[in-house]
Amino acid sequence: xxxxxxxxxxxxxxxxxxxxxxxxxxxxxxxxxxxxxxxxxxxxxxxxxxxxxxxxxxxxxxxxxxxxxxxxxxxxxxxxxxxxxxxxxxxxxxxxxxxxxxxxxxxxxxxxxxxxxxxxxxxxxxxxxxxxxxxxxxxxxxxxxxxxxxxxxxxxxxxxxxxxxxxxxxxxxxxxxxxxxxxxxxxxxxxxxxxxxxxxxxxxxxxxxxxxxxxxxxxxxxxxxxxxxxxxxxxxxxxxxxxxxxxxxxxxxxxxxxxxxxxxxxxxxxxxxxxxxxxxxxxxxxxxxxxxxxxxxxxxxxxxxxxxxxxxxxxxxxxxxxxxxxxxxxxxxxxxxxxxxxxxxxxxxxxxxxxxxxxxxxxxxxxxxxxxxxxxxxxxxxxxxxxxxxxxxxxxxxxxxxxxxxxxxxxxxxxxxxxxxxxxxxxxxxxxxxxxxxxxxxxxxxxxxxxxxxxxxxxxxxxxxxxxxxxxxxxxxxxxxxxxxxxxxxxxxxxxxxxxxxxxxxxxxxxxxxxxxxxxxxxxxxxxxxxxxxxxxxxxxxxxxxxxxxxxxxxxxxxxxxxxxxxxxxxxxxxxxxxxxxxxxxxxxxxxxxxxxxxxxxxxxxxxxxxxxxxxxxxxxxxxxxxxxxxxxxxxxxx
Length: 639
Fold this sequence. Notes:
Mean pLDDT: 84
Low-confidence stretches: 1-19, 71-82, 233-256
Radius of gyration: 33 Å
Largest sheet: 10 strands, mixed
Strand content: 25-35%
């Protein structure tokens, strides 16, 4: 017996056991490895079930894995040490995996037992869910939710169980997966992070408990008693001839409770990111912003903000950028800020697609405001600041945690130095808002932010997310922090007023041509400014013309929803009627680099080689412009 024991200890870990597994062996393995089996089920189950139901279902699947009698072991051995080499654990793991994958498959016909809500375990009056992790755990959970069930299983078996690819293929095939190789290939698209799989975010055995809605429970109890009495009466009526349940009833009663919507109204479930999460995260977007402000612990304020977001009353002023949905949150959003800004209490929330600002007067809730802005895909400079509030012609910003310095500068004065702004917990001192200035435009104040990667400019256009300013040829535009970029923008800064409240994401200025004037008075500058929007459509390209000594440029052509002057089509052609100092009128036209010829038809008929055209014209003449590109393509004048 002693030599036999030694031989077993030195047997390869991958050698499958051949003896049957009885209930006692399986029960011992289940008790010993229960947390790991439940975690495995929780990670493989579809995220669409919600965290609470996934927890209960994972426990149910692990408990159902206990065989009812003696059972042949899994042909797939466990691996490594401890539980590995234990045929009972291998058998349980295979059964848990098979059940979890069944729950993840689309329903066809009647649902399987694993696809139904678990009968046991059940917890009455409490909601149970794992402890929340940080930004990395959230990012991994989102990546896993985009995978199929078999791909999630392959990723978890590799990261949690440390199985080789051959073992994963065999185990997936034994669990009923039709294409184990495809599942492994899909799992390879998610970076390996075995440490995160072992974190509290994915531990369904270390749970937080919160009560359900107590008032709603009382109402449901009373409603249940009333329904029971009504059912006793209606039951007799249903049995009468001609009676029966109507086929046209509502899909669900008005009192049906949506768990995600209820959780979204609970301030205790708001996502709060660690203040240092951004330092190690690969992402530079709003999802790694910490919760800041002195009122982040004011549950009453947070509850009011969430309630107004879900159901804004008739007295709430609601605004949104074009293309932004104004519906309530689908689940608990992320808290970015809660505090007092000037004469208001302000809460800023983020749900992954939208930034929402709730503001109420310090003296009460009458006159509350709710503002929505799209922020999907915002990263880097586009996620560098948010508007906290505007008052007395000024604006305050909340800056990203990676911003080191903030300053203001007048975009119309490129030679003037920037004025530093104080930063207190990410909040800037007030600076002049160009969109709140009445009268003619004589200056344009912008926000200058500096971080480890450089300096960027953003401007307030009347929305929550300031627009990012760039300069240069489309497709290779850079920041406006340099002298050349500032000079490019200076004469055209006031044209930004045309993009107020249009859902603008960024605006680029491209000096695409210089044209000698026919009377020898110098060279005119042609600049195209293009505004990109968060929603994709509604883009605006403006061709602007400036004569020597002119304080500002003039818009001579505008295109809406056209690719011209953008990354997809870095070409532009525009023209203007210009009067010389001697009183003569000319048609001036200019195309960007790569324009080989320009022709004019209509009120002026002319043509010329190269990207510039200057011909005499009658006052008030109208002409249609067309051009030929060096690669043989054609281009038309911007309208």
